[in-house]
Amino acid sequence: MKNPQRSPTNPGSVRSRFTQVFLQSLLRIRKHSPASSSSSSSLGEFLKRCHRVKVAAYVSMARAAGTRRAWSRAMLWRVRHDAHRHRLLQGRCSRSSSRERSPGKKKRRTKKKKKRRDDQEHGFGNAEKLQKLVPGGEAMDFSCLLDETAHYIKCLVTQVKVMRSIADFYSL
Amino acid sequence: MEGSSTPLTQNSSTFAIGIHPNDQLPSCFLVAGWEDALDRGDPFESALSSMVSSPVAPPLAAGEGDDAVMIRELIGRLGSICDSGQTSPGSYNNSAANTSCYNTPLNSPPKLSLSMADQHVRGGGGGGGFPAPGCHFPGHPPFVPVMADPGFAHRAARFSSFGARNVNVANLNSGLGLNASEFPGKQGNMLDSGRFCRVPSSRSLKANDGSQICVQGNDRIFLQSGISASTPENGEMGDSREGSSISDQVAHGEMHARGQIDVNSRKRKSIPKGKARESVASPQSAKDSEVATENEEQMTKKIKPAEADGNEKDTVNGDQKQSKESSKPPEPPKDYIHVRARRGQATDSHSLAERVRREKISQKMKALQDLVPGCNKVTGKAMMLDEIINYVQSLQRQVEFLSMKMATLNPRMDFNLEAFLSKDILHPRGPLPDSLYPVDSSGSMSYGYEPRQGLMPMLSVVSSNMDTQFPADLLNSGIHRNASLNLPVMDNYGEAPAPGQALWEDDLQSVVQMGLGQNESHRIEQGSLDAGQMKIEL
Q: How many interchain CB pairs under 8 A, A with B?
């Protein structure tokens, strides 16, 4: 179901897209999560699920926002990379595969470098924090960072609204 | 032909007459009929050209150059002679004699004829001393028959090629006709002396005094400084020539060209200015570079290759103009590219770019201010950034919290997508509180929830509470932050909620009493759940 408004920055379209994707992801998680009715289901499981839900939420949001936005791309990349890294930690993948993720590493390096340059911008101290907050924010200058922040805030707001509505719907 | 050049006309007529040996011209050499010759300059010219077109000996072409030059000089001299009142008495007397032998020079080989012509010129110079008014040629016989000598015809045609030089030609011929007899002995002089002065325009000659012209045997005198003084027209054409008078025999065209160059230089000097102005206007009107100095640089680049003369001056003028124009209008930068330096501001490229950047950033900050609640009261970029950061953090925490909530709800979820979507998406519930988040102390929160899991009821409660309560103030306060920061992250899963309570602040303890891990709980607390609401036991 696509919203007639194609603008990714349009909260309506973003919302609808996000909702759709998110619900699908939730369904997926639900299927994958161990069906446990016992309260003893460890918090670990719960937390894992929470994490998955959160990731799903962010991923769905990023997808809904579209890859036009740097932060969405960065978020998707980060999720992918973190998942991969997670697998690495689990020992499933060899280290060679980690080296394949060179773009990710480059991204991290560029983040460090760009950080110094952005210090010269006005509001430099806060710019660093903002860069950390916004996914992919460290690899852009201050003006782009502000743009991405604006869009990111819009999407976050939409995401929160949708998630809340979902939660409320099902919590009732 | 200038009508004022009466003597020139006379010269021309004399020339014509000289060409026509059979006519009784001696007395008619300096004839007012020269005016007629002038009038007939064109026909004369055409006649000459026709004569040239007639089978003229081509071999003349080799020596034509020199001959032509000399003849031109002679003509010029004739003109000057005629202008001046100076006359060589002998020449006058000889005029008649000259005429008689006029044919000979004409019929003689070209070189000789030229020498004769020169001599004739000299003679004509002397004859030219005849009172100009006194001279009056009878109606010119047609010149065509005169040109028996093909070389002479050729030369005459050359002379005719010069607009004013018809007169020179006439002068030359007049000289020819006048002093034909005088010159035979002096043929070599004129010929050999390669120092024939260039034949200045007849006008220049006209202004000359006779003293300058008395050239008999003296070529140098011919073009003296006095010649150059003459008319302003001469100044244009004659200056260059006269400067090179004695030394130049080379093609007359050079002098002519130089004169043209002078004229062109003047014209071109005017042109670059116009072009400079145009180029100044064009970059401004069409496209304003990001920097005013860049505009100037562009202008200079455009101008310099365009014109060679007076470029620097023009560009300087253009630059000054450009800078003035750029600095005057205080136009705001319309676009990233089209930026103009404002009045009283630095026009440096860097400063302009910096200004553009700053303005863009300020615009974006204003846009963010609309997004982030509570920023209206905050002024200043630093404070704005702080607010923005806080807001983003709060949003992220909410997302996490909600995800956690969903995680608890997940098993319970029976996703009725259609219903859900139709219900919730189109009519989203729970407006996100943009204003400050008052802590809602409504305790009627979802106490009825069955705690399937320790988290769920709390989650539901929290979520409901969070619908209206997002305390920006609490976020801003160090409390939540500290609490969130102090809490371990996702590590202490196994701990009972009770221990986690110790980590919470007072207003958050109730929230924490849920058995949640500290990680989630501290996030939940960010929703500023009221203490009274969260007293949910596992």
A: 206
Tokens of A121: 């911008």
C-alpha A79/C-alpha B410 separation (Å) is 21
pLDDT tens-digit series, residues A85-129: 877 877 755 555 545 544 444 444 444 444 444 444 556 666 787
Query: Helix, strand, or coil here: B225?
Result: helix
Q: Do A26 and B493 touch (CB under 8 A)?
A: no
Question: Which amino acid does the sequence have at B487?
Answer: L
Answer yes or no: is pLDDT of B236 > 80. no
- CA A113 remoteness from chain centre: 23
Nearest Cβ partner for B392 among A51, A121, A134: A134
The pTM assigned to this predicted structure is 0.38
Å from B342 to nearest chain A CA?
Answer: 22
Rounded CA separation B25/B503 (Å) = 136
Interval B333-353 mean pLDDT: 73
Residue B425 is classified by DSSP as I
CB contact A67 to B (< 8 Å): no
Residue B453's closest chain A neighbor by CA?
A39
Per-residue exposure over B123-155, b if at least 16 CB sit within 10 Å of its own CB, e if not: bbbbbbbbebeebbbeebbebbebbebbbbbbb
As a whole number of angstroms, the distance between CA B167 and CA B4 comes to 12
- B34-85 pLDDT, tens digit per residue, is 455 444 545 555 544 545 444 444 444 444 556 666 666 666 666 666 555 4
Cβ atoms B83, B226 nearer than 8 A? no
Using CB atoms, pick whichever of A16, A35, A146 lies closest to residue B411.
A35
Are B72 and B40 in contact, with CB atoms under 8 Å apart?
no
In chain B, the residue whose alpha carbon lies closest to the alpha carbon of A31 is B411
Burial of A77 (C-beta count, 10 Å sphere; 0-12/13-18/19+): middle
Could you write out the DSSP letters of every residue in B256-292? HHHHHHHHHHHHHHHHHHHHHHHHHHHHHHH---SSH
Q: Which of B375, B395, B397, B406 to mutate to test the interface with A (most CBs of A within 10 A)?
A: B406
Find, among B77, B4, B76, the residue nearest to B38 by Cα.
B4
pLDDT of residue B218: 45
Contact B425 A15 (CB under 8 A): yes
